[in-house]
Design brief:
mainly alpha
Length: 67
Amino acid sequence: MIVPVRCFSCGKVVGEHYEEFRERVQRGEQPEKVLNDLGIERYCCRRMLFSHVDFIDEIMRHKGVKQ
């Protein structure tokens, strides 16, 4: 899993919140409420978690990548 550690725009540490964000959203909570609870208030930081797509498992299956 490759989650950005810091927001690309402002530099705030956001990577530490990704696991909790993902788990809570998968359980059915609203992403907006979860981000508010985690203290992620800036739009630039919110997009870092909200728009992250976890492709590492897909990439690892391709030929030529050693597992």
